[in-house]
Amino acid sequence: MSRPRLSPWRDGVLGSVAQTSVDVETGDEDQDQPPDAVKAEFEFEDDSARGDGPAVDERWEPPTVDPPTIEVTPQPEVIPHQIIAVAAAKGGVGKTTVATNLAVGLARQAPLSVVLIDADVQFGDVAMALSLTPGRALPDVVTAAAAGDALVLKAYLTPHSDGYYVVCGAESPADGDRVTGEQLGHLIRQLAVIFRFVIIDTAPGLGEHALAALEAATDAVFLCDMSVPGARGLRKELAVLATIGILPPARHVVLNFADRVSGLSVKDVEATIGVPVDVAVPRSSLVTLSTNRGIPLLQNRKKNPASAALTELVRRFDPSASLKRGRLHRRVVVA
Ligand SMILES: Nc1ncnc2c1ncn2[C@@H]1O[C@H](COP(=O)(O)OP(=O)(O)OP(=O)(O)O)[C@@H](O)[C@H]1O
Ligand SMILES: [Mg+2]
């Protein structure tokens, strides 16, 4: 089994980033500030910044012109899709918990339109978190037969009784290690043609597969816990992604294991990350229990603070939600 690899083009890009903007080795404070591009993208929306637009000259009247005849050719229906990469700099901060609960929550809105990929190729545990026994796993799903044929691909997915599909992780780390970032990227693009929501659970850090997922993603859910290393790790991750230009268009920052005993406040974490926190999931033994039972928290529909926070995250992807995306940043409070 080899170590996680970066493809040559990635290696080059990340290598140069480490020298120019983020010294990951030394963790130098001055070099790893989020670039302005990151800060600007995450700013709270400010109504006062918006002008009233140019004044309308009421005397002006549109010229009267006969409209030309236009022949309308029927266009093939384009299915809107969202590719959601769940990522974090550190391990064990709740990526799989969030990814599996997103699948459950989004499948409730859009049954049979959600697929979850376990892209933690070596040690993925999505199948365990969902009590699934896959017939086929990630290495099968990227073989030539499925990569070239959507019907074969769909037959290789593992259905969950709650109305969504899963690409489970490899049986062994050695099998998983044979899947390349390019193959994963191709799989994501294939599934985005078939499904409304493609959710990707990733391994910690910015390995080849996490980068492939983030590059294809329309949305990223970034996680950190309530610790200084967790927050610093996320700040560096955002800075690297902004520098190499693959920050997904929409970002959602989740503070997991939120509590009042860590010695840090949400404001402290936000100050360290450099961007606002969107959702705080409280530390709860119910979450641990749900993982150990292989039943995501949102599957049992019982009300508790952790479920409420995960539901709030799901609502950020709900196209029918009345709140505009840009207005979703509100100061998060830890109960
Ligand atoms: N809010 C929470 N409260 C209590 N336990 C939690 C919470 N979130 C996650 N956990 C537990 O923490 C453990 C790690 O969570 P999870 O596997 O989702 O993290 P991960 O980021 O996917 O880890 P890895 O990097 O190893 O893939 C699990 O046992 C899970 O039940
Ligand atoms: Mg995981």
Automatic annotation (TrEMBL):
Compositional bias annotation for Basic and acidic residues: 38-61
Top-rank lineage group of the source organism: Bacteria
Region Disordered: start-end pairs: 1-71
AAA domain span: 82-236
Listed GO CC annotations: cytoplasmic side of plasma membrane; cytosol
Single GO BP term: negative regulation of cell division
GO terms of molecular function: ATP binding; ATP hydrolysis activity
Protein's name in the database: MinD/ParA family protein
Organism in which the protein naturally occurs: Cryobacterium cheniae
Lineage: Bacteria, Bacillati, Actinomycetota, Actinomycetes, Micrococcales
